[in-house]
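User: Can you recover a sequence for this backbone? Please restate the input before giving your answer.

Assistant: Of course. Working from this structure:
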């Protein structure tokens, strides 16, 4: 156990959410989060968010959790993936960096200026990535979204680097 690294808050919360949302007893919770990526039905998952320490009054705190947790609820995966957002987007396009739709989606995310805006843009992208069963790291994405407003340039640069990275790096 001495070799075990301590998990970040986001890793603990994502792991805990995976356990709950995919259990046979939490079907109402899963259904609520599947509908949560629609702003008109988002409120249906609010009863579960305080359990994860989320302040419902603050959209910049609430929306990252709703964005990530609704994507997890829609996925068939039972554990968190390992691909950072930029690499997961690239993987959804078969690692084709020249794909115009992939580049357009990346540019759209990079044009966002706030956590609220990036969460709104990510909803459809995460549906696309999840639909292709890409092993995205939700904990990493949640961490990025939680810190987006204070470090947007650094986070967007990381996402671009993950997407464009070295051709020898991975694929």
């Amino acid at each position: 156990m001495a070799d075990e690294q301590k998990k970040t808050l986001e890793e603990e919360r994502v792991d805990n959410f995976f356990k709950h949302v995919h259990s046979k007893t939490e079907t109402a919770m899963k259904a609520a989060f599947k509908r949560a990526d629609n702003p008109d039905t988002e409120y249906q998952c609010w009863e579960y968010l305080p359990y994860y320490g989320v302040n419902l009054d603050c959209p910049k705190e609430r929306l990252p959790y709703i964005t990530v947790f609704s994507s997890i609820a829609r996925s068939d995966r039972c554990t968190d993936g390992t691909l950072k957002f930029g690499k997961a987007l690239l993987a959804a396009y078969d690692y084709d960096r020249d794909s115009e739709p992939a580049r357009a989606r990346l540019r759209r995310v990079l044009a966002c200026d706030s956590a609220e805006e990036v969460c709104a843009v990510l909803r459809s992208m995460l549906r696309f990535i999840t639909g292709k069963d890409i092993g995205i790291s939700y904990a990493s994405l949640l961490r990025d979204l939680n810190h987006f407003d204070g470090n947007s340039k650094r986070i967007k640069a990381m996402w671009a680097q993950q997407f464009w990275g070295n051709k020898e790096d991975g694929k």
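That completes the design. The longest helix spans residues 115-131.
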